[in-house]
User: What shape does this take?
Amino acid sequence: MSTTTQPTAQPTAQPTTQAERLAAARARLQPVFDAVVRDVVQREVDHQLPREQVEALVAAGFTRLRVPVEHGGDGLDLVSFTELMIDLAAVDSNLPQIFRGQVAWVEHLLSLPEGPYRDAWFARVAAGEWTGNAWSETGGTTLGGQSTKVRRDADGRWRVSGRKYYTTGTIYAGWTDVVAQLTDEATVAAQEAGDAAAGTVTALVRLDQPGVTVSDDWDGFGQQLTGTGTLVLEDAVVAEDDLAPFDDRFRYQTALYQLVLLAVHAGIAAAVERDTAHEVRSRTRSYSHGLAPVVREDPQVLAVAGEISSVAFAARAIALAAASAVQGAADTAHDRDSEADLAANVRAEIATAQAQVVLSESVPRAATLLFNTLGASGTSRAKDLDRHWRNARTVASHNPVIYKTRIVGDWSVNGTTPPFVWAIGTHTQATAAPQR
Assistant: This one.
């Protein structure tokens, strides 16, 4: 009796090039993207936080796309990662912005030297843990200062107390990345001497503990489901390893935060193009003074659709070009303060600012042009097409673009190095505004 030898199963080759890694990640994430888009309008209309969608994205590995392969991630560079952020923003612009703090936290880990802390956090991210953002405060905080404080208690544990706003993603996450100030004697003395930013630290705070309250009270007219509300901390515990000087953060963090918003803008533009094409193709009624019996053949309408399509094309190209510049800064991060590192960071900051200047105008305009292809029925609340403009305009309001135009101009004309970190608050020299 003869026997047949079964062929031995060969292990599946792991993707090695960026193109292969991007294709593998996209194939894994695309079913989640397809599911996310199905009820996006109803979520917006009902103000239903996309908790299930966020969980599905985390389970599919969206939060570990930048984590090195050897640590359980996909090892994508920033250009490939931005491709996927744009794709996600095209189905729901809230979602990539929700993960903005996580994007920055992983980038910080990538900039650290290899070691146990870095390895432990990569393992957490690979297992599905992720962090939101809690840097900003409202009210009378001094420019460069923080009312949120960190102290050491009688038992030697670090505790943080304060109130944060614009805490994007925190309501969905297990951790949040908090900026605060130490209350030790040296820090207090330095602050009293005029250094408002003295003792500024970052603290990774676990959210499932007593003394932590997160509220969905963000009241912006766009990006309403990003969870950009209030975080209250009352003596929340921080592990000593998760407390670090703010200045230890990677230099290109502002450029990276802006890159996420550029990807959101590019995704909104893609969504505007998609919805314009769908609405025009579906339209059966036409005007007597139009140029064709059906709207989808009307040259005037097609010209508007062509302009919208061109904006979407340019927005993606601009965002990816900015991502390439930010990747350049990531490539020099372990040679911090070298001449090459400074040059790369200048390129990243200027490129993201230039992109912001262009997309802050063109994408909201494209979202307005959409309505020129339709009749009054296009303004139906059930369609919620106005969300594209509201979301684009809200994204454009981050990091005020009027300051970026000046910074880019000063660099272009005078070669002035742009600021890499900026703050908002009450200036010590501010005077009361004149009454009218």
Remarks:
- Residues 175 and 206 are 4 Å apart (CA to CA).
- The mean pLDDT is 92.
